[in-house]
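Standup notes
- DV: blocked on the single-chain target, sequence here:
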Amino acid sequence: MNYYDYLNAKLPIIQNMKDSAYKIDEKAVTSGTESSIFTDKKDIVKYNDNPIFAFAKKDDLKDIDYEKLLENDPAKIEDKKFSPLEIVMKEFLSIDKVKDAVDTDKNGEMSVDEVKDYFNKLLEKDGNGEELSLEDFEKALQELNVNLEEIFEKFAKEVEDKENISTPDKTEVTPSQTEEQPATVSEETPYSEPVQDYAPVSSAAPAASYSPAASSAPVSGGAPVQDSVPVQTESLEQLEAQKVEKEKVVTEKQADVSAVHSGKNENIKAAKDEETKAKEAYDKALKSDEAAKPFLKDIEKNDKALTKNEENISKNAQKISETESKISQAEMSLSTAEGDLASLEQQLNSLPALKGDDSDKSVKAKKDELTKQVSAKKKEVDKQKKELDKLKKELDKLNKEKEKLEEEKTKLEETKTKLDEKVKEVCSEDTKAKLEAYNTARSKTQEVKKTELDKANTALKTAQDELKTIVAKIAEVKAKQVSSSDKAEQAAQIAEQELAKGVREDNGNNDSVDIRRYKKGAKNSNQWCGYFTSYCFGDGQGSDNRETFGYTGSSQEIKRKAINAGHYAKKNSGYTPKRGDVAMWTKTASTGHVGIVTQVYADGSFDTIEGNSKNAVTKHHYKSQSSVSGTFDGFVKMNEWLG
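- DV (later): unblocked, structure below
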């Protein structure tokens, strides 16, 4: 993390904190395009998508209120605003290693004179002396060995811990805290009354935290916020793309190996050309040497057989290499297919037994679908096993052929050695010299071929191993998705069970024995669609569901966390929801509604079960994503998120 990323990550958090030691001067932000501290460079610090800093000129330092810069008591500077340059400098001075560097008299505190002196030296350090840029700050941090990522993670954790102090169950509801769902949702199931959801607000006003990853998808009605910095992991789509690219590399490396065996490799071709020239010179010398005539035909016959043998060995080696690659690929494909089969069987076995009531319809449809998929996958696995066995038998045959060719070569080489000895005994010095030159060139060709083959095989093996690693990661992600699918499936089943119980409010006051169960025992008037969803994914499964949105009564809290984790899809974005995903309505940044998807149909329609709908747990059918009312916003991809 560089200083640019650090500021863009931290500033939105600070601006949402009531106990922040400073506030940005909004006028300075909006007038930024006319100021000397702005530029059209890409790497600039932004606030609410407005650029606020790229570099400052020497004269800008004269306007700095250094005493304000060093003050950390919000009460003493609550009426003062900070310019963009002051913000960048203040954040810089908040870093412990910077404080130590600025504190030249080592009395434990930075003075105004020390800060002025430090920044003036920083200004002059690059030899320019006219501009103080982000690059200058960055270089200074690098020299001090500052780990900004570690500092930011610690800061984000402190903010998160502060948020966790809040207790939504004890919060009284005010009109501004309620969340309202639109009055109509579809022709089949019109709402007869507004449906509301509670957005917890604590008196401590916990600060929201932020990650740059969320900046591209701001929450409606406000700046992007999140609870912690998400861990970036490779998605299945990314891994599949990597697999395609790595397969291309494997194909290229296999072609390099084939080029060695066929003699098309440029280095081998060059060595072979030299060998051919040496052989032609030797053959010419032999034919003109009277002493060689008695065994000349034997030499020619053996050379011809040796050349043919070497060609056959190269062809055999090429086939072996290609077959081994096919086996490697077949083994990976089989492993993938077997993993997919195990996943399908696990999903099928996790489905509940048929109960003989209305809930059977969706369960039976799911079982039928999975049964067909399992059957098809078994046939695929059997077919791949047969193909793999066939390849292994072919490899065995090629290896036996290789043994025979190697035995043949040994005999031919022995014959050549004996004939070479005769040449050395009776032939002229010129013929002997030509033989020596030919044998040297021949050895050189074999040496180059071995070197090139080792290099090509190593590159191929590396590419194959990398491909296997990617395939293993894909299998791991799919396995997790099966697990997540189980959890998402279980949430859908719990929602169906709660629907079957006929859960509804007592006298319309957001309360009943079952609703208190969703609220973890609390008896209050808080709206409860978020609690119902949290229950289905958490306590209803005997888990606190920390891996996703946790326990919350706020639909928009679920949405914010999903966006920041990268598992949210806007309506009509091309995403097809899955059973166990969460449907989301958004009215404002803190008001909306939420439900659990329980069935998705081929025509694009889908069913949901929603808490606090018509004062009850209610099932709804929507013709399409477009037909849902205007405040319907999209889906939380729970099947993906739980993976």
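- Follow-up: Confidence is low (pLDDT under 50) at residues 31-43, 165-232.
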